[in-house]
Design brief:
Distance between the termini: 83 Å
Largest sheet: 7 strands, mixed
Structural class: alpha+beta
Amino acid sequence: MDTRWKSRTKITVWIVLLTIGLSGILSILDNVHWYVNKDYFHTEDFDMQLNEYIEYISVADINHTSEQELKSNIKVTKEDIEEHRTRYGTLSDQVSNLRDQYQGRIDDAKAADNENVVKLYEEERDQKINDIMENFKSDEHVKAKLMKEKEKQIDEFLNERENFIANYDTNLLSFDYYLEDVKTGEVFTNVKNANRAKDLEKSSNLFTKHYSSSENGSLQINGHYTFLDYPENELVAPKPRLLQGVITIPNSASTGNWITEQKNDFENRQTFFYATSIISLLAIVLLLLWAKKMHPLQVIAASEKRNLYKAIPIDMKLGVLLLSIFFMIVALFANAQNYVYFSYMYSSGIIEFLFAVLMTGITLVQLVWIYREVGQKQLYKEAFLLKMSRWFYRLGSEAFYNRSVGIQILLLLIVIFLSGFGAGVVFMYPIHFPLYAILFIVFTIPVLIYLFKRIGYLNRIIQHSKELAAGQMEQDLPHKGNSALAMLAGNLNALKHGVKTSKRAEAKSERLKTELITNVSHDLRTPLTSIITYTELMKSQELTKEDHDAYLEIIDRKSKRLKILIDDLFEVSKMASGNLELTKQRVDIVQLLQQAMAEYNETIKESSLVFRTSEPAKPLFAYVDGQKMWRVFDNLIGNVLKYSMDNTRVYVSVAPVNQKVQISFKNVSKYELGGNIEELFERFKRGDTSRHTDGSGLGLAIAKSIVDLHEGTLDIDVDGDLFKVTIELDAMES
């Protein structure tokens, strides 16, 4: 426990040093251009104050012109008179426009039966028309008007100038100046009894700025005023000047106190800046040296709380990290300002420092933990935004899975929304009610009718599905068109018919299962009964040698019969479960069939059947398991020999048909083939009249299963007593 607390304490101290170092670096980058200056009088702040003062004396003294002088310089030229006269067009155009402007007002007043207003408008119109006509008659009339306009402009300028002078910061009036116009020799100064610039130059001055007579070294006064919101005209524009002389700040209690405070404050902050910068750089060096021994990043990475952090999605981690970095930078910048404004002496500065330490620690921990996970692609697949985008995509995909349904519902919602919005508009502005009523009748009512019809149809489908789930096979639902509900109704109808078919197939399966059990019991019991019976007979003491041998032969034959039945049963079960493995290779089907026929040569010769074979001249290849396919041919040939009518022909053929190898067996059945032909493929299924034969009833089932495993087909055709088996397999090129 003590070790853990020591480790946490060391990490905390290390983060504190890191915060001090980072804040110091930011302070250096942000403030170095201020505090590398020689003193306060070489800073941008002081230059700005000096320029403001020069602008002030330029307005208040150097370019100060009296009202009388400004107005005495007013001149009205012929061009001014002509421009004023035709400013708004010719005489006829101006009169016509003026009449048009007042005609609408006069008509409105007449409509309101307000004769006093009509008379007032007519008098005002006629007065302006007379003034326009007088403009075109007399230059003196226009000149008098222009004089008044220019005097008004001068009055506005004088008012702006007085406001500027009155609002100037009096703290800056501690400057003294003695300036002389280089061209005219005119002198400007605010110091009494000063006859030359040297009279202001004293060793005790806080600041002294010299201006020479050269163009580059002189004080230049530009020909415009910054306090005006509009460009100066020729009446009030100042004269550009080149001035030589001196501007000083005397070191006296009455004039230099404020500047002295600024100077002392800058020097204190400059000293504090250099001290904190050195401390910050030393802190950086110290934490780097300490990190080599303590390995703080590894300690942070090994924290137990990282397991809780892993559960957060990666995008949320990155989002929180960006916020943390942002707040850390803000906190570090705020803390960096404390390095030059002495804020550490106040509680606010301490709080800012602690907040900077906290944000630096939180950000550092997140950076270390995320760095260990950033390369894991699986984390990005589990991102919160990605999951949400997938969810919204899936939501939209499901909503528009049937595009027509999605669009219809969207349009319905839009119409209903616009109808409600329109009702609100009509409530606020009843004047729009007729238009809203027309749109409501044309659009909203048909949409509502359609919506209710669709809802009713959907309710019928839901009720029908409930009845179908309860096993009630009602009549089919009506469905027309290609709408989603019509397709749903059609699918329910198809499902209902499928259920009926499934029930019939289930009933058939139950029947075949019963028959299977009966047949298996019969076919297994018959040889087993014979074995038991003859075994009991062989136990008799009076049994002769001939009878003993005869009984033993019967037991042997029945045992082999029982073994064949059991082997076939296991084999067909294995095929049905899919556990049978095929060893496929390129096999000549013609040669394989010949080999199968050769196995039955003796039996065929002993029978009364006549075999007719039809084979192509060249081999026919297929990709099959030769041993399993030989078993198919063996079963079919065996069935032909067992169940064919005596003294009939059997036709066996092999031929290529549409890139397939087709093998067919045709014979005339010895027994009558009743019932469903498809049931002949069922296990232990034989014609009712052939139950006494030695067949297992599995021959066709085994053959079909093998062919199915080869992705081929085995079909049976019966025409009366004519029995035909056709096999088709995919052919290979020779």
